[in-house]
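Build the 3D complex.
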Amino acid sequence: MSAVYHKEMRQYFHSVIGYVFHAIFLFINAFYFLLQNLLPRSGDITDYFQATITLEMFLMPMLTMRSFSEEKKQKTDLLLYTMPVDCGHVVLAKFQAAESMLLLGLAATLAFPIILALCGSVQIWITLGNYIGIILLMSTFIAIGIFVSALTENQIVSAIISYVLIFVLWYSYGLGSAIQNPVLLALFNKLSLMQMYYELALGILNPAGIALNLAITAIFLLLTTAVVRGRRG
Amino acid sequence: MIEATHLTKRYGAVNALFDANFTIDKGEIVGFLGPNGAGKSTTMNLLCGYLTPSWGQVRIAGVDMAENPLEAKRHIGYLPEIPPLYVDMTVAEQLEFACELRGLRMKRPQLRAYIDKLCARTQVLDTRDRLIRNLSKGYRQRVAVTQLLVGEPEILILDEPTVGLDPRQIREFRDLLSDLSKEHTIILSTHMLSEISSICGRILVFYEGMLIADGHPQQLQEQLSKCRVLEVEIRGDAEGIVALLRNIPDVLTVKEQGSGIYQVSHRVSTDIRSALYRTLRTTEYELLMMKPEDVSLESLYLRITENEQETTKL
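Done.
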């Protein structure tokens, strides 16, 4: 599994994708930190996190759009599947590599709460809750992106479908209110990842929300493994 | 070494491969022959575990591919038609990746030495640190073969390995294959009939998803035709010669080709040359030449596919 993980990491930084992702990620975070905290001299870090979250989530397909689609297009998947490597491990390695890119990006943003702590005070639990929420949420979006990339050979199609799925899962709480059917309404509200994130952002640890988030991630990873195995069947 | 039993691959209602049964022993060099879409690549993909059969079984070195694919795949190195290389990696990085996939655990200096050894064998050592995207087709193919050798798998499966290579590269590649054949069981599919005849000791012929023939070129000729043909040149009147030749035991037909050339077909199990010589010696006819028809792979291939087409039409 580590072979595929290292290969993925190497490919992120051999192509421009790794650098562009980190540049945009850091720019968005720095820009909103400046706008929400530094210029108004505010110590409330919640505004900064809430402003960046929606933009960050639309960066995730950038990491995952070529994950399986490019392998399929370049026919390099034949190497992976004819070597003594389990399909599930390949999926997991690709997920871990994208996850590592996210964590690297987030690590750089730790500078902002540190700056706030140096200049005044920082709400530790809220900051921690936000970071956990972002990691959980983005992991789900990475799993969705990898799943979609396993369905198509086209990177652009992969990115567009990922955006649609991410949009639906993020805004399902809002979409639910437009639905009259009480069963569908309840389902959409339950599936809302926005709800889970905002609870964590407020420092509320809701195990049900976290479990739902982890379950959705696991389901998409299992589906990806099934798709990868199924395409060869 | 390889056992395929009732191997079938269906895509919807279409049989890409139907009920193929064969065994390949250790050290054999087997050629897969057949037109496009005949089922050669499907068979190869099934043998190396890339595809799962709809029906039937593949056993590699006694291991069932369906039950223990990881163990079965350890014995196989597969080179598909398009070499599976990451163009944004250097040759060394690509080979290191292949080593890791094969589970070879080595320290950095040993790994480097191992890769250098493999590169030297396939003559790609000078491209070691070059990006694969900058390599020519011939060099990419060599890198893919180097990758194939990582972990020394006993079975090498090569799907159309010479497509797109120039004649010199084809010759070099053939030499490389001859070298590899000393230590590996090799399965090779190609359209280059000369390639198969010069390297392979056994041929499996595929046609429209069916394995229709299996054997040495000579055996195949005997399997597929009921007779052998002897070409003779005799001076004298044609009518008398034809009548005389027809009277030789085991002769089936005699065809006059003109200019004193005759094609004499006879039963597969017999050699009529001595009888023909003795018959002519007592007559005024002069025997100038006697030559068994050359069983070229081209003629065999065409005959097989023509036979199959006729059968299909019927």
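The longest strand of chain B covers residues 14-24.
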